[in-house]
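# step 3/5: fold
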Amino acid sequence: MPGRTLPTLTKAEVESHNTANDCYVTIGTNVYDVSDFVESHPGGPDLVLEYAGKDITDILKNTDSHKHSDSAYEILEESQVGFLVTKKLAANGKVQKNITDSQINDEVTPTVHPRTGMSCEEDLNKETDYTTDYKQHKFLDLSKPLLMQVWFGGFSKKFYLDQVHRPRHYKGGSSAPLFGNFLEPLSLTPWWLIPIIWLPPVAYGTYLASEGFDTPFGLAGAWLFGLFLWTLIEYILHRFLFHLDEYLPDNRVGITLHFLLHGVHHYLPMDKYRLVMPPTLFLVLATPFWKLAHSLFYWDWFLATAIFCGGIFGYICYDLTHYFLHHQNLPLWYKDLKKYHLAHHFLDYELGFGVTSRFWDQIFGTELPTLVKTN
């Protein structure tokens, strides 16, 4: 078997490869692509197709059917394309061993995480072969606009969530087409646009708020309180909105909205122009918080505005941090944070929701144990 990182497939995925030109079989938790062997099978193609998308362990052992030579097993070993996920898995380096043939897998990819198909952060930058990926997973074709593929794909929620959290990498880190029309520029946001657009309103809002404080210390206290509140909001939004996976409606409306909001980022995590929030989307999300701040602190418009401005500054720091964690060489403390966040992508997307710090992950028990070696 070739020494390479192999993905993991769900049972439904394997079962979908059931034709003469696209035929997968399994032996235990190992998945094999035997498409090229169908016509040349000594027992005839019909016998192979009878087990297309199914497990062939029993038929291989059945000598009454016909005995399989050593070369047949060698062909199978060379045709392995992945591993079968059979249960919900925890995030640790022993998982892959637990669900695969240890005699084979320990020698090849002992730390591949079965829910993402990756073993380290470097895997996030490995270019995806569009044709092979689409043929194997039957999800999205990276050479075509993605959004309409999600809308018309007819994917179940289970299949969609499994696939969208298996990172792909578009050629050279460029942006894959999302809309494929005049709307495309609205989905692409360079990181430097965030401070240019939002720092002036924050400065102006802070100036207006200062007129309601007797001392700069009161203003600074309210502003810093808003900054602290943002760290909690960041955690809540990431965990309960961006990753509302369990509660996602099992229909194309819910799936498409999820893909637009956050799914595309997990699908293509190293896309430089989809790492920070588009200004239009931020306005939609920020408006309720402006109203909330002025409802909670209704007795003092200046206090509410100062807190809101501190929170928006926290958002700016969040977006810039997020971009730098993916694409910049950082100081020592940030390098640790970088490993932590990238592990959220390649290791376990159901833990590690903090981006600017681990603080709230530690408080709420969702800290990601980065046990798998990441460099």
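# step 4/5: annotate
The first strand starts at residue 8 and ends at 9.
# step 5/5: archive (pending)
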